[in-house]
User: What shape does this take?
Amino acid sequence: MQKPKDQLEVFKELLTRKGLKYTHERESIYEEVRAINHHFNADSLYERFKKRGERIARATVYRNLPLLLESGVVQKSAGNGKRDFYERTRTKGHHDHMVCLGCRKIIEFHSDELEQIQEQLSRKYKFKLVFHDHRLFGYCEKCQS
Amino acid sequence: MQKPKDQLEVFKELLTRKGLKYTHERESIYEEVRAINHHFNADSLYERFKKRGERIARATVYRNLPLLLESGVVQKSAGNGKRDFYERTRTKGHHDHMVCLGCRKIIEFHSDELEQIQEQLSRKYKFKLVFHDHRLFGYCEKCQS
DNA sequence: TCTCAATTGAGATTTAGTTTCAATAAGAAT
DNA sequence: ATTCTTATTGAAACTAAATCTCAATTGAGA
Assistant: This one.
């Protein structure tokens, strides 16, 4: 278990590696997503800037979220199922989701075993795992009757 | 390990349970998806009917795929990432996907362990697991340089 | 057979995300 | 510090995918 690199560093490295630039907008977006504790989507993030009077285009938000995802700063989350939802990646507290087909309730879960097996599988296929999207669909306790 | 119920039965049971009807269209769609060996999406399925002259509305196809998903007749697949892709559920041969962020290559993988842990977790949360969506994103061997 | 809610078709509509393109800004090279 | 090249941005137009509308129809239980 090595000390995790600072997230901003990782983000900047990704940009450099891809020949991209660290713009003011990217800085703002980075800071904002790090400050949000719950899940969000591109539009709700955009609205936060708008509400506070910071002018960043909707398209810019949409354009940059994939980079934050790729650098691991944010991870996929399970919103209502349709849109792309995100949440910041925590060193502690990564989790996946169970989605109830009945009432749409979301149950968060985590399993180290699961994570380890994904790592194993990635090694087996010489795949460099960056992030994953893992959702279980079914019925919560209440909706099983 | 109990003998898996006939898929058509499961589908019909779902309909009954939900107070829905087994229409001609549903029958056609059921049969068609069972006959497709590769992955598909709502539109490509619709096109198959159209091409052969069977008139089923696009909306009907879209409307019914979620039911087939819920009954386990089809499962989510990983197409190009954007659309909802499906593939028929095989007793043998269930798999998940690794998606390369570089070249979009899809690697199929399967792990009994992974499946078992999902079952365990579902039991732990009293969740009745129906299907899951599990995709690993990262870089394939070629794209790591 | 009757009844009634579920279903369908066809097109309109919505939603989410992407593209366009001229103007601007990052940051490497000089 | 200045120049130069290329990525980036904003704003709105656009696209793709999926959903909705509503009148006509159909399934299946009474």
